[in-house]
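Chain A, query sequence.
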Amino acid sequence: MPSTGTHQRTLIVLLLAFVMPVLVAYAVLKLGLYQGGSTNKGQLLSALSYEQLAHENPEAQQWQIIAFLPEQCDESCQDNLVLMRQTHQALGREQQRVRPLVFTQSDSDLSAVKQLSELQVTQATANDQVVDALAPYALVVVDPWGQWVLGYPHGSLTTAEHRRDLLADLRKLLKLSRIG
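Chain A, predicted structure.
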């Protein structure tokens, strides 16, 4: 007959085998050591919408790729406008669901504004809140309800691989979405 010490040792081993993984998982989550899986390449923008920015949705019921046209549209600004158009064209049959949109203000670069019609990009006037919200991003993806979904910071769309990431994110959003 096994001794009491053996029963206690068995009980402790069983408790450790089942309780220890739970405690370790809890500690990893609480200490922020786990970074959840993410398939999107842009930065997820939560709790940002046209409504919160006191701006009317210029292309309601459409997905949008948006950018802001500053006073001086330098080379990176021009690249973003071209990337916006190329991404839109690369969507193929899904392109009718997406509108490329550039926000301007009265002091925006006039030569670049004229180029927008050649690039087949819609233009809208931005209020100060929209300008401030767009400041950290080269491009932003907006859903048909006006929720800002993904942002691509300045300098993040420099390589061909990063440019494909924007297209991949858009395709995934359009595939998973039944709206717009």
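The longest helix spans residues 4-30. Residues 1-37 form one domain.
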